Amino acid sequence: MDYKNKTILITGASSGIGRELAIVLADFGNNIVVTARRENLLQDLKREIEDKGSKCLFFAGDATDPKHADLVVRETTKTFGKIDIAILNVGVGPASNTIKDSREVILGKMRTNYDTLINFFVPVIAQMKSQTTPCMIAHLNSLATYFGIPMQGDYTAAKAAGRIFLDTARMELKHFGFKHVRIQTIHPGFVATEAVKDDGIPAPNEISEKEAVKYILNGLRREVHENRFPFSTALAVRIGRLVPTWLRTKILLSEAAADY
Ligand SMILES: NC(=O)c1ccc[n+]([C@@H]2O[C@H](COP(=O)([O-])OP(=O)(O)OC[C@H]3O[C@@H](n4cnc5c(N)ncnc54)[C@H](OP(=O)(O)O)[C@@H]3O)[C@@H](O)[C@H]2O)c1
Fold first, then answer.
1. Residue 244 Cα to ligand 1 middle (Å)
2. Which end of the chain has fewer CB atoms surrounding its CB within 10 Å, N or C?
3. One MF term in GO for this entry (predicted)?
4. Secondary structure element (H or E) that encloses residue 10, with its range
5. Which domains occur in the chain, in start order?
6. Each residue of 155-208: pLDDT tens digit?
7. Comparing C-alpha atoms, which of 74, 66, 73, 80 is closest to residue 30?
8. Which of 9, 11, 17, 68 to mutate to test the pocket of ligand 1 (most atoms within 8 A of CB)?
9. Is ligand 1 within 6 A of the CB of residue 156?
10. Distance 33 CA to ligand 1 centre (A)
């Protein structure tokens, strides 16, 4: 999918991968709509986007609130008439412990990583079904979506739920004849963003935000269903899915911190 002169919504764009994506996409004469809770960061981002010649709207709000998502989609289409690409990027995965954490912490991770996806998916898909030109929903998932991983149990579960939901949405779009709507899940390995700097989770083959954005843009262009990167981590995960559970457990536990 081409990303020039398009209307592009990016959720969770005040920092990290979402922010870097917005800045790079601003080079291509797009209408860029960005969301997050930290309004001051979105204001700075809007200035940077406009300095590069793209248009920008920002909406400060909490993506766990469905009303926020409805408003963003409504106002975006009122201003720009359509949404060509929606990059649903909100998500966090600080270190966790399935056998110590409270219900609130575990379910909170589901709200931030899964509910935020669904809150935007529902109004975006309704809008895109009404459009006629090619358009795409791309979800920032993770390579940590295929099996449980120590220190990331709640996060991996939420990302797995998102992946399976979108797999089904892709089938149903085809079944019901909405061939112009593409669904992509983006599966980065470890990316060196501020959010994960001191999280204590081992991060082999970590790549920079800039590298991650290059992979993401390449995936959007090629319209792959699942964009997994970098190759080394994607290959390790693929092998991890094939080996017996006892061996995968042994390898993953050998990487986990002694206490957390
Ligand atoms: N970094 C990695 O290693 C890595 C690897 C694989 C996948 N990912 C995925 O990539 C995405 C971006 O991660 P990142 O590392 O760039 O993290 P980040 O810098 O913390 O970005 C997360 C963004 O989401 C926003 N956000 C969080 N909770 C929100 C809420 N309730 N409502 C609205 N906005 C919210 C944050 O903004 P506010 O705080 O201002 O709201 C921020 O803009 C996530 O989905 C993550 O799971 C990251």
1. 32
2. C
3. oxidoreductase activity
4. strand 7-11
5. 7-255 (3.40.50.720)
6. 999 999 999 999 999 999 999 999 999 999 999 999 999 888 888 888 889 999
7. 80
8. 17
9. no
10. 16
